[in-house]
Give the backbone structure.
Amino acid sequence: MGATTEISCTWDQALAWRMTRQLLDPVGSMAASDIVRRLGAVLSVDEPAAELAVRTRGADSGGLHQAVADGTVIQSFLFRGALHYLTPDDGAMYLALRAAGRQWELPSWVEHYGLAAEAWPAFRAAVRDALDDAPLTVTELGEVLTVQPAYRHLRPVFEAGAGTLIKPLSWLGDISFGPRRDGRLTLRRLDRNAAWHGLPDLDEAGPLAVTSYLGAYGPATVDHLHYWLGEGLSAGRKRINGWFAGLAQQLVAVDVDGTVAFARREDAEPLTSAVPSDEVRLVPGHDQWVMGPGTKDAHVIPVALREAITRKANPVLHGGVVRGTWTRRDQLLAVSWQSDRPAPISSIEREARRLSELVGHDLELRVDR
């Protein structure tokens, strides 16, 4: 994957451009669904963290919940098997990649669930029929399905939560998660969402997924693409390399302080003219800022902080680089600055005031260095 670089920039410039793209500097003023589209996906395992991730980029309070309710954002199993928020169009693109692995046809899968590959069309239809009238919890779906003789053997699976069994149903575009009912997630038919247009062809989805990733996390290396689409979605190394090669005219090779990375050609000028950012941002643990490039990316996360960020510590960003962590307990906001660089106190104080507004509480700031 060698390439002759066409433009050059520094990592400070690259991260400044990325902060602009991800609505962190300057902070955006978009609807929650537009912010999710900018990021490609937002991890939704921790609902308060997901809400803060979009709010810190300019969304209104409750905007993410409303977007799920009105269908402009869907929630589905995706990267690394975890729940994510996505727009319907981006969801279709990424789900097409994930479904290409056809995990439900593996012998181990067939043996465990007692569902042969040829039984899946009927099983999918039965699930859609069960959800025809209204969303159901996983338990309720199991109760409907297991009265049928063909699926009676799945009763223990549903009683245990059926998490792995229902994942392919989301990958195939049959279901998504709806608003919680009494604290429990509900499943609903995805084709009842007017914004859902079905899964695209894989050869159409793949190149779009590459350019979408570079539009949010570029300039990025080929290894970054394999991390995001390969490790994240099991898209397959050969497929990813093929999609990447087919985009040669749409991409530009960038020398970023000696590292060969790639960006969309349309982003070349704003990338090379970007002014390094000096802004501090307090983002939630597992924010897309760190999940998109991966916690092994030392340009974003210094090695000394990698373990903490991997374990979901809240990152303190300075110019896009993680320089520490933060916690909030009641009214106390504690920032732990973990860098040889001097702590930019005035910027930290300004961001602390902004966080106070976002959470609706006056926070007392403490900076530990």
Q: What stands out?
A: Residues 1-276 form one domain. Residues 202-217 form the longest helix (16 residues). The chain has two domains: 1-276, 280-368.
